[in-house]
Amino acid sequence: MPHAPTPRELTLRGLILGAVITVIFTASNVYLGLRIGLTFASSIPAAVISMAVLRALGNSSLLENNMVQSQASAAGTLSCVFATFPGLIMAGIWSNFPFWQTAGISLAGGIAGVLFTIPLRRALVTESSLPYPEGVAAAEILRAGGKNGNTKSLKALVSGGVIAALFTFASNGLRVVADSVSATASLGGAIFQATGGLSLALIGAGYLVGVAGGLAMLVGCIMAWGVCVPWLTAHTANTAHLAAAEFAHSVWLHKVRFVGAGAIAMASVWTLIELIGPVARGLRAMLHAHRTPSTTEQDKDLSPRSLITLLTFTVVALGVLFSAFLAPVAHGIGTLVVAAVLFCVVFGFVMAAACGYMAGIVGSSSSPISGIVIIAAVLSALMILGLEACGLVPEALMANGQTLATGFTILVLSTITAIAAISNDNLQDLKTGQLVGASPWKQQVALLAGCVVGAAVIPPVLNILYQAYGFAGAMPRPGMDAAHALSAPQPALIALIAKGVFTQSLDWSMLSLGMGLGVVLVILDVALRRRALALPPLGVAVGLYLPPSVSITLALGAMLGWLAKRHIMHNKRKTVAKTEIPVTAVPEHDATVGTMLASGFIVGESLTGVGLAIVAGALGAEDPLSLAAWLPHSFAPVLGLGVFSVICVWFYRRVVNNAVST
Questions:
Q1: Strand partners, 202
Q2: What is the DSSP string of 426-463?
Q3: Per-residue pLDDT at 582
Q4: CA-to-CA distance for 282 and 582, rounded, in angstroms?
Q5: Hey, how many other C-beta atoms are within 10 angstroms of the C-beta on 379?
Q6: What's the pLDDT at 581?
Q7: Is there a contact between 515 and 259 (Cβ–Cβ < 8 Å)?
Q8: 38: which DSSP letter?
Q9: pLDDT at residue 8 tops 60
Q10: CB 183: neighbour CB atoms within 10 A?
Q11: 15 dihedral zone (left: phi>0; alpha: psi -120 to 50; beta)
Q12: Helix (H) / strand (E) containing 111
């Protein structure tokens, strides 16, 4: 009896398609991360695109689609290094992002993240009951695609992307519609300000984050701009005689943001504390797991020889890159470089296990990587201070206000960030592979390929965005409009913490206030959860820290999603009442179209932002396509708010109508 042909899995065309999708989602996530401090999960959009393209090419299989989405999601996740690298510019060390150093650190960290999850796969995926929500969802999408179920989703992704691209081109390119609206009012000496960003990417991000996270950020924003800023402006002298709006922004930037930073630190630490028990149990299970020889293709990992080779490459690459960073300005760096590499390997493995377990419990998107990076920032800075106390670091490292020490800390953190982010995502992908019958070793090769392509894309995207927009507090050229700068919240916070540890210059009064607030938020959240409610403390803290234009619009997107789901459930209850069908027999609504529209908003705006940055760089001018000079002053805000509102209503109706028709 003839054997059935083996389905395609790891193919050349799949690797090429994965590389193309990688470029798209890496650029999108870097842009989104620098703008609002969040990224979006790329697994499901990548799977939808892959299914459509491979089906058109013919002879596609579910396993081949899984390899493509694994590769693309790994690269999209590697873009989390946006949270650290810009800190080197903010600290005054780099003036751009050198390709080999940026790509090399990203690649070495990404490879280490893949390697560290390989010994964890059996304990945390194969022999574990962890839910892995995003991995299971991706598997369901892949299975649905095998039944011709992805056409509607792909159309939604494309339509959302096109609409967001057109709106972004009109706002950020032609400047015929505004990208934000703002109102400022004074009461006595107190200044109140509300700013909403007209950004479809934020609407999409809010929809994906969900109502709990979105409302938590809104609460944080209200605390910042409805309580802290008014109180401080009423009790702080405006010695520079700034206009009301500028004075309020200055107070938020130099005082209230530190409150948010302290709250972020405490909320992140609490999240990690909550997960110490599950992580410890996961590691114990891994150490005591009975390792039997793999006899099937569905249980084979990369060979030990491959693992040793890749780990050796990673260690050597990190040593060379760290040395290249320090050597031009410091001598006698051997001990410091060895200590930094060991820190990345040991702490990186612990974080890979922790992040992998957290991803299995709450999903990759909800895993508190920012908290891990904050902890790593403090630990790496303390490591350098300990070596200095032992006389094992060169004097140049601590000279000139510890600038080089700050920069080296950020470089080490970039490696840790890549390791944590990749391990956070890879176990989700391996769970997807387990559910669809993929070969683990082939999936690990695809993940490594994603890291290679992602690492190559990240430096040019960072350079393009920096030269076109600049970062808040760090502009590439004088005379640029700071209002259009990317806020880059995480890099600013990381640079602030690293430099503050070395120079003892942190604003401890505001930070301490924020830490105290963080404790209160944690207690409040614990109390609410006992009543089946939630107010995520990390979300509130981020709402304090981010600009109001981000928090308010993101909360609007979350509310649109919540209202749409309530509308859908109300209609289903009416249908149940009329037909007398038991509630349990009514299927859950198909949320794929809503997710794809939201993802399309993010991708469309992000890629257009990168494209406009390329145009600005090529022409050597800021806003080279702007038509604002020929329009009345109030035209752009009114038109922008009107068009933005119409698109939001369209988005809501599209989600609701899709659920009704399914």
A1: none
A2: HHHHHHHHHHHT--HHHHHHHHHHHHHHHHHHHHHHHH
A3: 46
A4: 40
A5: 15
A6: 45
A7: no
A8: -
A9: yes
A10: 10
A11: alpha
A12: helix 99-117
Name residue 476's amino acid: P
Phi first, then psi: give them for residue 96, nearest 5 degrees.
-155, -175
Alpha helices in 169-210 (DSSP H): 200-209
Q: Give the tokens for residue 511.
A: 């930070």
Rounded Cα distance between 447 and 428, Å, is 12
The token pair that represents 43 in the structure block: 């697994």
CA dihedral 555, 557, 563, 566 (to 10 degrees): -100
SS3 category, 180: strand
Do the Cβ atoms of 275 and 424 come closer than 8 Å?
no
Residue 476 φ then ψ, to 5°? -70, -25
Q: What residue type is 316 in one-letter code?
A: V
Residue type, 554: L
Helix axes 99-117, 440-469, angle to 10 degrees: 150
Q: How many angstroms separate the Cα of 165 from the Cα of each of 170, 608, 644?
A: 9, 6, 13
DSSP element (H, E) containing 265: helix 257-274
CB count in 10 Å sphere of residue 564: 23
Point out the least confidently predicted range of 55-69, 380-394, 416-430, 605-619: 605-619
Number of DSSP helices (H) and strands (E) in the chain, helices first: 25, 2
CB 425 within 8 A of CB 364: yes
Query: Rounded CA gap, 306 and 313, in Å?
Result: 11
Which sign, positive or negative, has the C-alpha torsion 530, 534, 536, 537?
Answer: negative
Angle at 388 between CA 312 and CA 315, to 5 degrees: 5
pTM listed for this prediction = 0.73
* pLDDT score of 506 more than 70: no
- Provide the CB-side half-sphere exposure for 590 (13 A, CA): 19
Contact by Cβ (8 Å): 35, 487: yes
Burial (CB count within 10 angstroms: exposed 0-12, middle 13-18, buried 19+), residue 350: middle
Six-digit token string for 289: 């797991």
Rank 9-18, 340-349, 390-399, 426-435 by mean pLDDT and report only the highest.
Answer: 340-349
Residue 296: how many other CB atoms lie within 10 Å: 7
Take residue 394 and report the two structure tokens written for it.
Answer: 């060169």
pLDDT tens readout for residues 540-588: 887 887 778 888 888 899 899 889 888 877 776 766 555 554 443 333 3
3-state secondary structure of 257: helix
- The CA dihedral of 313, 315, 321, 327, to the nearest 10 degrees, is -130
Alpha helix ranges (H) inside 241-368: 244-251, 257-274, 276-288, 304-326, 334-362
pLDDT, the chain, mean: 79
**DSSP 8-state secondary structure symbol assigned to residue 589:** P
Long-range contacts of residues 142-145, Cβ cutoff 8 Å, at least 24 apart: 142/47, 142/51, 142/62, 142/65, 142/66, 142/69, 142/432, 142/436, 143/62, 143/436, 144/592, 145/47, 145/48, 145/51, 145/62, 145/65
How far, in Å, CA of 259 to CA of 403, rounded?
Answer: 24
